[in-house]
């Protein structure tokens, strides 16, 4: 993984109060799990996931006392990736929910971890696509065909729930993001 830039100076006097830092940081993994599981089950990612991720990013930046410039850089990564995602969606390469999740996750990775996130998500997406292709070539047992989400995944006319790969990439890169470093500095 590439080396991260030094964490911005924390200027806030926030000490955590009744909300421990670890619970604030759990928003990201919880949202990633929510996105992956709903995409797998329904082939849709709720807009609420992406909205929650961006809102939590802004709240954490304020809580940790991140400078406005540093926050703008985090948000600019998301904005640029939203444009990229919209382009991929317009070409029919990914779904709209995938494009929004891609952008919202980039607000958390920032520019420093964006490339590793993209690489891991692409590799995870390739593995996911291969697994689903093999799954779709196999005969689906009747007892599994009765499960709507498994039948949908088996249908060759359906897409790939790429939100799973985006979530895997985000979860793997998350420990290297600025948020963990800021939380450690704020807690000390």
As residue ranges, the low-confidence spans are: 1-5, 7-18
End-to-end gap: 26 Å
**How helical, in percent, are the residues?**
55-70%
Mean pLDDT: 87
Based on helices, strands and strand pairing, what is the structural class?
A: mainly alpha
Main pleated-sheet profile: none
Q: How many individual β-strands?
A: 0
Give the helices and strands as they follow along the chain: HHHHHHHHHH
Our Rg estimate from Cα atoms comes to 18 Å
Shape: elongated
Oligomer: single chain
Percentage of residues in strands: under 5%
Description:
This protein is mainly α. The chain has ten helices and no strands. Helix 6 runs antiparallel to helix 9 (163-173). The radius of gyration is 18 Å and the shape is elongated. 34% of the residues are buried. The model is unreliable at 1-5 and 7-18 (pLDDT under 50).
